[in-house]
């Protein structure tokens, strides 16, 4: 679900475009694609093709540091998921 701020940001860009005040492209958020761009991508309208992703200049840790931590986080989330599945099944069986 979008926040009010996100909806406001989208609406603002749309209103500018409607007034022919063409906004700048913002990676990860908006891009004005012309027909030649669409033609170049075989008429695919997938937003990510045109908008891309926002550059993350704040990434200061190397992949070798980040990846092991992400794997450990994922292991914890899998364990939590398994526990929750067990609780849900027990609750459903209790309804019988």
Question: Helices, strands, pairings?
Answer:
Blueprint: H1 4-18, H2 35-40, H3 47-51, H4 63-94
The rounded distance between the terminal residues' Cα atoms is 35 Å
The major sheet is characterized as: none
Per DSSP E runs of 2 or more residues, the count of β-strands stands at: 0
Helix content class: 55-70%
Unreliable stretches = none
- The radius of gyration over CA amounts to 22 Å
Identify the overall geometry.
elongated
Detailed description of the structure:
This protein is mostly helical and about 100 residues long. The chain has a domain of about 35 residues. The protein is elongated, with a radius of gyration of 22 Å. The mean pLDDT is about 90.
List keywords for this structure.
mainly alpha, 4 helices
Quick overview of this protein structure:
By secondary structure, the chain is mainly α. It has helices at 4-18, 35-40, 47-51, 63-94.
């Amino acid at each position: 679900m979008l926040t009010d701020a996100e909806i406001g940001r989208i609406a603002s860009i749309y209103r500018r475009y409607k007034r022919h005040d063409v906004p700048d492209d913002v990676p990860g958020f908006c891009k004005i694609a012309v027909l030649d761009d669409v033609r170049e991508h075989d008429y695919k309208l997938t937003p990510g093709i045109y908008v891309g992703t926002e550059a993350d200049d704040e990434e200061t840790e190397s992949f070798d540091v980040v990846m092991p931590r992400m794997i450990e986080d994922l292991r914890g989330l899998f364990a939590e998921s398994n526990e929750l599945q067990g609780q849900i099944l027990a609750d459903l069986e209790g309804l019988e």
